[in-house]
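User: Let's play a game. I give you a shape written as tokens, and you guess the letters that built it. Ready? Here's round one.
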């Protein structure tokens, strides 16, 4: 059984117990509670919950809200001040109460196969054809657009999504399927090149076009756009004296249309959020021309990187084309759990995966393919997955509990996230760092408290970051005591939060946690007991054991008054654990007091517990 507060989750009989009283739950509602409890302390997205409980059936997400509402009634939980189930708007849910194991026999044991491991941890990752997983619908949409273009109606497609979501893999699979039926020319936008070299990705694509189509493409360019031919290092009859100033979008559009007169031509521009204005203007011109052409443009675009701000030219151009129905957008979403399983099976080259691997990787990666592969490689590098000889065949087997790796961020991902963070201003880094001290979701008031700055200024800055960055979203608004309101924000991936938190010094983190705890006490003055557990958590993270203990005892008193006696016991046992960290002079008396309170809770299940307030 799993225990939280005064409740016990009986998985064998699929019911809930509270203080010896059995609470029957409908199967689906029990399933929701069990999944949340099994993954306590982590964000569980709507998709993950739906995939786990209804893997083969389409279910309206609204059903989850109904089930969570019923669970809150059973648990006596308050959505505004959750003790058990916290709602992360537009994302999912998080089970926030501490969970303990009633029986450890169900835990996965360590598999002793390390001695059988084959040398070479990676086993050739990246040396096989990767293809694309979980994108059948998007791939079909791209092929449909290509068929329309092949019939003479030009098409413009934006493939959008966060970093690592699989935009390039999707486009690679699409282009691979065009072999023998169409012409593909690709250009890569590069960060920083947009300010230095106009048309950089266009020139790269033209170079590929001339190389693949040879004299045919060169003849058309020499006749219709000689300056463009000269710019790629080729000379036509009229290109000897062409200069960069003579390169006009109209000439190139005309030449491309002629090349695509009888055969589909697909131009791929990757990472157009880094494209120069001239390239964006050319893409817009191609999409707006009315002449029939077997021409298709596919442009990949990442979220954030400034393209979410009103002043970024890409945003205005894309919105204008969408409004005029001159383009379509394929927005890639995170992989579902089943697709993550397929991805892992492909990477490990085995159909049956080790128990628990899919759930762990999907949870940690939140469906991001790049993150999933990096986590898998990290598990292998740390030898939590080893290649073992089983029945004469080599198979990947677990050599440790995957949960032990929850606090680690794969080096490759950490470096990628660090690069993104380093691109922010010093103030923005401080704001996000302070937000990471709260967890995945962070309110603006807590950031302002940690940094000792004006709350309105911090809220405005956080709002700007949520519009510009792909890994921070606006979560909603909190209503606090006294009518105070504060916006709160959410890290899209827990890995971003972990990297941001770890890059802070221990002293800075401790100061932030202490200030947040103090501000919590001020906001809930007179009602501190209702947030005492959270206050204790921050004081413990700050290393202030005395005040953390006092907050734990206050939370225990509050739980006892509400007849949550098991929760009160757990809180006092946590306080006893913290008391062991006190100096020898303080430790003895404090532990005696806590043990007396524990005895009172156990002997007098109703009322009678009195916590005396003491200053640290």
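Assistant: Ready! My guess for every position:
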């Amino acid at each position: 059984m799993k225990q939280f507060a005064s409740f016990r989750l009986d998985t064998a009989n699929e019911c809930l117990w509270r203080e010896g009283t059995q609470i029957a739950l409908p199967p689906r509602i029990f399933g929701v509670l069990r999944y949340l409890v099994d993954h306590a302390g982590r964000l569980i997205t709507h998709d993950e919950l739906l995939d786990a409980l209804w893997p083969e059936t389409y279910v309206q997400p609204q059903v989850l809200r109904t089930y969570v509402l019923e669970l809150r009634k059973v648990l006596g939980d308050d959505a505004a001040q959750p003790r058990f189930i916290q709602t992360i708007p537009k994302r999912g849910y998080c089970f926030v109460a501490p969970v303990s194991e009633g029986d450890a026999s169900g835990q996965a044991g360590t598999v002793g196969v390390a001695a059988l491991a084959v040398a070479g941890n990676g086993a050739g990752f990246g040396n096989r054809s990767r293809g694309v997983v979980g994108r059948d619908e998007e791939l079909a949409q791209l092929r449909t657009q290509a068929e329309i273009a092949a019939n003479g109606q030009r098409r413009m497609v934006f493939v959008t999504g966060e970093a690592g979501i699989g935009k390039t893999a999707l486009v690679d699979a699409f282009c691979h399927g065009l072999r023998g039926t169409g012409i593909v020319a690709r250009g890569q936008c590069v960060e920083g090149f947009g300010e230095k070299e106009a048309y950089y990705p266009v020139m790269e694509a033209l170079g590929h076009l001339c190389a693949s189509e040879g004299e045919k493409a060169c003849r058309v360019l020499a006749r219709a756009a000689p300056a463009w031919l000269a710019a790629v290092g080729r000379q036509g009859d009229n290109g000897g004296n062409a200069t960069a100033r003579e390169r006009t979008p109209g000439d190139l559009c005309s030449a491309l249309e002629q090349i695509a007169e009888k055969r589909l031509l697909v131009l791929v521009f990757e990472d157009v959020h880094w494209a120069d204005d001239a390239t964006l203007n050319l893409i817009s011109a191609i999409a707006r021309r009315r002449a029939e052409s077997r021409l298709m443009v596919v442009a990949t675009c990442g979220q954030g990187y400034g393209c979410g701000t009103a002043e970024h030219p890409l945003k205005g151009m894309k919105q204008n084309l969408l409004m005029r129905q001159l383009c379509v957008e394929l927005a890639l979403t995170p992989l579902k759990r089943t697709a993550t399983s397929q991805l892992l099976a492909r990477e490990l080259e085995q159909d049956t995966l080790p128990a628990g691997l899919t759930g762990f990787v999907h949870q940690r990666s939140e469906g991001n393919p790049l993150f999933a592969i990096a986590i898998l490689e990290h598990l292998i590098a740390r030898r939590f997955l080893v290649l073992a000889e089983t029945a004469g065949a080599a198979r990947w087997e677990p050599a440790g509990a995957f949960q032990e790796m929850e606090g680690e961020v794969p080096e490759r991902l950490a470096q990628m996230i660090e690069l993104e963070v380093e691109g922010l201003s010093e103030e923005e880094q401080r704001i996000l760092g302070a937000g990471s001290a709260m967890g995945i979701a962070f309110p603006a008031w807590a950031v302002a408290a940690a940094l000792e700055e004006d709350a309105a200024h911090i809220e405005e800055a956080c709002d700007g970051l949520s519009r510009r960055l792909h890994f921070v979203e606006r979560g909603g608004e909190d209503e606090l005591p006294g009518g105070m309101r504060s916006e709160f924000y959410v890290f899209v991936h827990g890995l971003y939060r972990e990297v941001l938190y770890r890059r802070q010094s221990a002293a800075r983190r401790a100061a932030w946690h202490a200030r947040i705890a103090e501000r919590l006490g001020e906001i809930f003055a007179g009602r501190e007991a209702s947030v005492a557990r959270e206050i204790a958590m921050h004081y413990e993270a700050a290393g202030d054991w005395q005040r953390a203990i006092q907050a734990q005892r206050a939370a225990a008193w509050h739980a006892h008054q509400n007849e949550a006696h098991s929760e009160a016991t757990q809180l006092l046992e946590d306080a006893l654990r913290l008391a062991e960290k006190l100096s020898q002079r303080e430790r003895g008396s404090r532990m005696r007091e806590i043990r007396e309170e524990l005895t009172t809770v156990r002997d007098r299940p109703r009322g009678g517990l009195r916590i005396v307030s003491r200053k640290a």
